[in-house]
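User: What would this chain look like folded?
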Amino acid sequence: MKTLVEQNVVEELQTGGDEPVRLYVAACAERMAPLFIALRTGETGRETDVELYTDSVAGLWQTDRLLSDAAERAHLLDRFPELQSTEDGITDVVGTYTFFACLVLRYVLLANGSGSADHAVSCGHAALTAMGMLDQNIAGAAFQADEQRLQTLSASGNAAGIWDASMAAGRERLRAVLSRVAKGTR
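Assistant: Here's the prediction, encoded as structure tokens.
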């Protein structure tokens, strides 16, 4: 499968070792987190899902060690409604972006637990795909280009400023999705 992740990022992930992979995926998860946490908070029956997501993202920033229960968290995440196949598929804005947020976190947890560059690249690809869709639906948006820039920074292995930049990017994504929801667009 051809991936949207830039080749230099893939090479960094393949040669950098476990800690840079964990930094890269933690940053990807942080940027996508608002799209799940904010959009599902307050939804009846989703309290434990939001808690699992929130706790997972927080734990991922300890990049010097793996999240001891990453595989268990991934297994629990697989049960989220967003990752279940349905006859009609996903047809709404909130469902689309919460799906991508869950898919990214799934790959993040797998990469964190294994140090696998392949899982990290899949995580990055899912985030880039989501941002590409957002760009297509908002005139003049450049979310995918920003995601590529942040992935390059994250893959460098230098943690300085990545958390702040990822938090800011996540808030911007959420604002964009909420503006689409408010307008009633798909």
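Residues 18-40 form the longest helix (23 residues). If you want, I can go into more detail on any region.
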